[in-house]
């Protein structure tokens, strides 16, 4: 993997703690990297320990011989060697500013990826794309056509505002390639023996039809269970149905809500819940099931990996015709897509929901929850889709086989990772070809990330410079000066404080009367003026030196 560095923050690549879609995608990506068996991986990380975590992760995933080269966050200019930085989120705008500050716009490419786009933080990132120093050799991977539409809407709205406000006419934007998330298909393959054992362990009778839902069990942030419960209950008079929900609840009140609603809406359906964070439970769930379903109705969903995992397991799927599901499930081939309905753009209620979220009246969870209440999944169509699969084992087998083949041919990580690498090569070629045509940009810092001594330059009485003079404070010797480095309120900052040798050199140079700073620079020639300036400021703060402005 010599054509990209990975922006590595361990929590983005491990299935620990609170697991969301982006963690699952990150962990699967790392497995794809390991499966590619690269000789070397570039790791762009804040600390060496994170690069070591990257190396350990690759070893655990089967690539012990892959070398990991650490590029510290503080040295982004070294990303020019791999030629591209891939980060597992959409935040490439921030790295574009760092590139402009520390390198050149054509020094390397940037590549990010979308996950949920419903939060304020992500919307802000996406809306800022037109004003960040991004280029046509950068890219933001969109995992579905729907999410790309959302990104384009945010970008176009911001551009329209900037044109009206400033008269701007030229905008450099990243590419928005469409590449889905992938699955490791071999993990989901099953056998008749595995199926028999799984059904035995779960207490499934031979004549029961098992319908599986996997993922977070959240009526407000994933998929409201109401249409699923109603559709299955309508079929429970003609078949013995088990609803196997393999996932997890955020807290007890949500668990009780699911159980209460299931008892009220599908009393004839036998419900089983298993912890989907346990991989053995997940393997059993896929092996024991006959049909997969996910009737997502939530705007926080942008792609939806679980139907592809179910397809890889050979299950026919019944999903809502919603966002990324529309790109992954072929209606009538791999399963059925159930129509959805919501309000048109521009309604007052939509504006009200946006305002309440913007003003902090509603938090993110409630914003998603309220919106999902106004997304309808066709209950009758879901009922009919379930019925066709419940009563027809042959159709289940046919659709399951079609989905399994599609998962291998289109969504296998071996295929997706090659698409990534192909994209990265294309961006490198575009960078080489187009850089000379791009408008020149002056290296600069992002204004809202300013040097604090520039932004707050008017705060102090004086700045270190030719007009400032220093002398040794009376009664302070070297031992007393060095002891100030060890104070409890000071020692935390040792990484930016003067070294003992420099303190000794300064005290020696300042044994006489007041000395102007420019003279002090000549008296300690082996140290840069900037390092001397930092040292005399801190030594003055610590009461080791006195300072005043020359008349």
From TrEMBL:
It comes from the Bacteria. Pfam families: Glycos_transf_1. Residues 195-339 form the Glycosyl transferase family domain. GO terms for molecular function: glycosyltransferase activity. InterPro entries: Glyco_trans_1, Glycosyltransferase_grp1. This is D-inositol-3-phosphate glycosyltransferase. It comes from Methylobacterium gregans.
